[in-house]
Amino acid sequence: SIDPATNQVAMIQLPRDTVDVPIPEGPAQRLFGTVYAGKINSWFVAVRNRPDLYPGTDQTRGYNGLKAILGELYGIQIRYYVEVNFEGFEQIVDALGGVTVNVQVPVVDDRYPAGGGAVQRVYIASGMQHMSGAEALVYARSRHGSTDFDRGARQQRVLLAHRQQTDNARVHPNLDQQARAL
Question: Cα–Cα distance between 68 and 87 in angstroms, integer?
Fold first, then answer.
């Protein structure tokens, strides 16, 4: 959440394996029941091609469904969303010369997706680590060998470090690269 009046930012994360999330009143509740029994990370796919459940286009309907169900869960109205894909994340981090993160617990993942269905072993040592966009993405995405809560904390650590390390001296020389990434 971003409050432009106070420049305050708040961030929460719902673990991807969360189940039994309450569904707001309406067509989706009539179809699925009062709670969604599947993992919350499957809700987007369950509703995105269903114009009878949520308004929008094929590209926006899944997000509208997520805004509705998460708004119901937290008791807030969610007006906007931002989608960041992996490539965009890497480019933004790289445009600012990388990010330095205090890795509090070593990351060991023997099944990190390497593309094409392959997996690779990932090890990131604890301590201060300067990461490229690709390395920060691995640190933020790794989910084997730890919990969803650990992964959420790592993702927030990367975003917070990136925000804290972003200043005019780093932004101005790379403004064109950042604009392309955005």
Answer: 27
> Which tokens hold the place of 136?
């920060």
Q: Which amino acid is at 113?
A: P
Q: Which pLDDT score, from 0 to 100, does residue 122 have? A: 95
**pTM, entire model:** 0.78
Q: How far apart are CA 69 and CA 58, in angstroms?
A: 18
Q: What is the largest CA-CA distance in the chain?
A: 54
CB count in 10 Å sphere of residue 157: 18
Helix axes 133-141, 148-164, angle to 10 degrees: 150
Contact 161, 101 (CB under 8 A): yes
**Of residues 17, 38, 43, 44, the one with CA closest to residue 152:** 17
Which residue from 111, 101, 105 is spatially nearest to 156, judged by alpha carbons? Answer: 101
DSSP, res 108: E
